[in-house]
Sequence to fold (208 residues):
Amino acid sequence: MDQNSRQELEDKGWKIGSVAEFLELSPEETMLVEIKLALSRSLKERRQALMTQAKLADKIHSSQPRVAKAENGDESVSIELLIRAILATGASPQEIGQVIASVG
Amino acid sequence: MDQNSRQELEDKGWKIGSVAEFLELSPEETMLVEIKLALSRSLKERRQALMTQAKLADKIHSSQPRVAKAENGDESVSIELLIRAILATGASPQEIGQVIASVG
DNA sequence: CTAGAATATATCAGATATGATATAAGTCCA
DNA sequence: TGGACTTATATCATATCTGATATATTCTAG
Fold:
C-alpha cells in the first residue's frame, strides 16, 4: 500500500482520520476496500462507453446520484449495487471476476 | 436455468412465490443470485476445511448464526459479508474472482 | 459567452442487513 | 445414552444502504 493508494482511499471518505488509523486496516479489510474501488473504476469505464448515468440508473431502478456515488467509490455504496450496475452494462460474471481477481 | 437451479433458489427463500414470478427474474437478476450462491458454496467449502463457524465469526467480528446464514445462501446476507468471510478463510482476490467468474 | 446536458453533492425517510442472543436440532464418540 | 460440540432457526434493536429529491457544479456544443 503506497502513499497514493492511501490518499485515494482518504479522498473517497473511507473514514480514515489519521495515518495510524489507516494502518490499522487489516490486510483483509484493505483487500475489501480495494475490491470495491476496482469495481467502481470498472463501472465508470464501462458505463461511460455506453450510456449516461441517468440511463444506467433507470436500468437498475436506482437514481443518477446513486450511480455517481457508485462510480466515485463512495463508502455508502454496497458491493451488491456495484455488481448490479456492472451487470447492467452488459458485463458477464467472467468479466466481474476478472476485475476482482485483478486486485493485489 | 434448469429445474434444479430453480428448486435450489426457492429452497433458499429467494422470495419466489410462483413459477411465473420466478421467470420474471431478468438475466441480470438471475446472475446476481447465482453469484451469491456460488460465493456461499465457496465459503462453506473453505471454512469447513479450516475451522468452525464460531471461529470464523470471531475473525470477521460477526456471529455464528450469521455465518450459518451466509453458508446457506440466506437472502438476508450481503455479498459484502460473503466476501469478508471468504477473505477471512485466507482466500485471495484471485480466488474470489474465480468463484464469480465460474458463474454461468 | 451560454444554454442545455451530464455529473456531483446534500439530505432524508424508509428499507434492508447487521450482530447479538436464545434456543433448537443435529453430530459424534466415551 | 447422553453430554459436549457444532450448526441451524427465530427474534430483535440498531446500523447501514437505499432511492428520491433538490440543487450545485462541470462539461459541451453553438
Q: What stands out?
A: The helical segments of chain A are 3-11, 19-23, 27-50, 53-59, 64-71, 79-88, 93-101.
